[in-house]
Amino acid sequence: MTDDAPVGSVRSLVTAPESGAPPERRESVRIHPDGVAGDRYRAGDGTFQLDGCAVTLVAAEALDAVRAETGIDVSDGRHRRNVVVEGFGAGMDDLLDATVAVGGALIRPTRRRPPCAHVEELAGAAGLAAALRNRGGLCCDVLEAGDVAVGDRVAVRAADPRTAGAEIAARLRERRE
Predict the structure, then answer these.
(1) What is the pLDDT of residues 96-141, one digit of tens each?
(2) Of 40, 51, 131, 138, whose CB has the highest number of CB atoms within 10 Å?
(3) 7-176 in CATH: which number?
(4) How is the chain classified by DSSP, letter by letter?
(5) pTM score above 0.90
(6) Cα angle vertex 137, ends 1, 146, to 5°?
(7) Which residues does 164 contact at the CB level (< 8 Å), separation at least 6?
(8) Triad 31, 29, 5: Cα angle to 5°
(9) Could you give the CA distance from residue 139 to residue 107 in angstroms, rounded to a whole number?
């Protein structure tokens, strides 16, 4: 990776012990290959189990923008994403398919996690799903289990294959010139 690879931090951690249960903010969690300890999806009890994610990320900047634009404050975890990270911008699409170190865990964001009407219903906040459109977070696979705490460093360990390939091609072109 280059020295200009994004680096951020964990702003908050959220789990819900069962489907529909209120979210619980945590100071630290253990991320396992099959999900976050204490979370409904790891327990096999998530509403969207067939489309579940081991770990979900959302950008703190996205949640801040939702609050600024709509007045809806979901900093209490009603967004229902596991890890809130700051330092990567509201969309975080640059993290897709990259290898990302989050505290002691290593994850790979694989796809967007769009908001749904269920999130809006559970949050009790009309308009939340629309406000989170295109910034509802990312689904992640777990490459290495580990402990994660609020304030931990979040860093891209290896770029997604497309970015890495482009960087290699650019270096090769520079050498030829």
Answers:
(1) 999 999 999 999 999 998 776 667 666 767 777 777 788 888 999 9
(2) 138
(3) 2.40.33.20
(4) --TT--EEEEEEEEE-SSTTPPPEEESEEEEETTEETT-TTTTT--TTGGG--SEEEEEHHHHHHHHHHH----TTTTT--SEEEESSTTT-GGGTT-EEEETTEEEEEEEE----HHHHHHHT-TTHHHHTTT-S-EEEEEEE-EEEETT-EEEEEE--HHHHHHHHHHHHHHHH-
(5) no
(6) 60
(7) 158
(8) 65
(9) 10
Rounded distance between C-alpha atoms, residue 174 and residue 177, angstroms: 5
Q: Give the percent of the chain with pLDDT over 90.
A: 45
Distances in Å between the Cα of 126 and the Cα atoms of 34, 89, 129, 137, 139 are 32, 24, 8, 19, 24
Q: Which amino acid, 147?
A: D
172: which 2 tokens?
A: 């090769």
Measured CA angle at 10 (ends 60, 8), to 5 deg: 80
